[in-house]
Amino acid sequence: MSCFLVTGGSGFIGSAYIRFLMNSTNHQVINIDKLTYASNLESLEMMEKNPRYHFVRGDILDEKLLGGLFKEFHPDYVVHLAAESHVDRSIQNSRNFIETNIFGTYNLLEISRKYWLSLNSKKKLKFKFHHISTDEVFGSLSSMGLFNEESPYDPSSPYSASKAGSDHLVRSWHKTYGLPTLISNCSNNYGPYQFPEKLIPLTIMNAMEDKPITIYGDGMNVRDWIFVEDHVEAMYAVILKGEVGNSYCIGGDNQKTNVEVVHELCNILDAILPRNTSPQSSYHDLITFINDRPGHDFRYAIESSKIHKNLQWKPAETFQSGLEKTIQWYIKNRSWLENTKSSTKTL
Question: What does pTM read for this prediction?
Answer without folding.
Answer: 0.93
